[in-house]
Amino acid sequence: MTPTQPWVVLMHGLGCDSSTIAHLWATKPETRLLPNGDPFGLDQLVILTSQTLGEWGHTGYLNEQYLYPVLAEKGIRTVQIMRAGPSTKDGYLILDDTRQPKRCWIRGRQDDPGHPLPPLDSRVLDFMSAETLAQRFPGVTVQPPHFDGFGLADELLRGATVPQFGESRRQCSPKFKHQGQDQWVMDHALGYGLSQELMQVGGVPQFSGKGQICQNHFKAEPASQWLDQPPGYGLSQDLMESGIVPQFVQNRRRCSAKFKSTTCEQWLGSEHGPVPEIFVAIGFTVGEERRRDRGDLAEAKRASQAKPSWVKRTNFYPLIDQFKLDRAGTEAYAQDVVARGIEPWWRSACVYCPFSGIAGPKEEVLFKHRQCPEESGFALLIEHLARRLNPKQTLYPQGRSLFQMLKDDGNQAALDHLQAHLESLPWAIYRVQRIVGNGIPWRKVELLAVEGHDAIETELREQATRLGGELSTKPDGFLRAWIEQRHTDDHRIEDLLTMAPALAKEKHRPGWDRMWATFHRPYTQQTLF
Questions:
Q1: What residues pair up with 436 in beta bridges, in sequence order?
Q2: What is the distance between the alpha carbons of residues 458 and 451, in angstroms, rounded to a whole number?
Q3: How many helices (H) and strands (E) does the chain have?
Q4: What are the backbone angles phi and psi of residue 286, rounded to the nearest 5°?
Q5: Rounded Cα–Cα distance for residues 35 and 279 (Å)
Q6: In angstroms, rounded to a whole number, what is the distance separating the alpha carbons of residues 260 and 254?
Q7: Are residues 9 and 279 in contact, defined by beta-carbon separation less than 8 angstroms?
Q8: pLDDT digits 0-9 by tens, 281-311
Q9: What is the reported pTM?
Q10: What Cα–Cα distance (Å) separates residue 526 from each residue in 428, 523, 529?
Q11: Residue 240 and residue 236: Cα distance in Å, rounded?
Q12: Of 401 and 224, more confident
């Protein structure tokens, strides 16, 4: 690819929609068209996947068996990334960057194709020694043995929650797919950057006695080398010669425009040709125009809040605008052509996805849970933990639980896998305080004790007596002790003790103590004196 040629990045979600685009582009040269109708070559194409670590194992198998051999034959660059940590500031890890893809890294760097449990909160060791933990609960770890990224299930279990829907979109997709993909695109558009060095050396960002090595290598050292060069004309000289201070005009800083933006534009134009251009293909189908429009609005909002970029990015939707394919059309193509008529292609979704438009209709979801009871048991564990800490938090809306759905379907194998998880884990008593109804819900989770299941139930009853909590198994059969449960016209206060697998982390937002003092303060009759 020459420097003047645009990149084309396909956001590959592993399902039938984006896999159809990848196969068409790989095998039919006449279909490789940019939105303006210009053709592009395979050397301009990147297939980019952000792994959530929650996909059905069969989806990974389908890509390895049928699609990846085609991509490898054509030498198409295929990149797989994943979230590096719980914060967006942690960035992403590159799992694979190759023109000969073979493995679909749906479990990240874990060798076990199943669902390894995330590590426990380190406070478990305050209640139980590491030796006792290893002896009584073999296979359970407190800290990961190596830096291996952060999956959606890690966030759900540590937060004792289920996938959320807000601001007219799924909150899990931007955080565990789009953000990492967008950042990879920006990192690789302008040449050699930090992520490429880490990929080549097989490392992660390092910290030494001299500070962040990546900051030194990619910021401080280049700046020092520049300072060694003959001086140019800088902002301070301009200010002193004019006898002024930095100015703010027409809603922008003139100094930034003059000494940053304009200079960068000149450098890009004179030294490296035109501004790099990237076309990002997204696999929305005919019938999903509303998703496309929401995505465009979200992208416009993100772009308006982001720092200036020297990359021209254009999103486009080949299945809608070029191929005119709906979901039935991509399912048929993926099965008949990509999978050569051997088997149907599963749509991409996490095993614990509650969104019917993504996971599929009920019968399709139940079929997958029957086919993969071990993965199904892991999804049940995520819901079980969330319900223990919040009775209202079933996987599906309006109190519909995955547990009841699989029980009604007679999927005893999945229920047995859940029970095996519950018996193999240490249990904890959590105190959960919650304020609901004041904007974003406020919650504090505190870990009070850790033991085996039977011992922790006894401890829960004793602590309920000490704190004046009322024991109850309503509304779902799980034992809790309600210390306070108060409703007003505009908010709800909850303070409870519950027992659950010791997977959730202690957590509260900054400002929690102030909010709790404000809303928890008992109502009293004001005195007249």
A1: 492
A2: 10
A3: 24, 18
A4: -55, 130
A5: 8
A6: 10
A7: yes
A8: 999 999 989 888 877 776 676 666 655 555 6
A9: 0.78
A10: 41, 9, 9
A11: 6
A12: 401
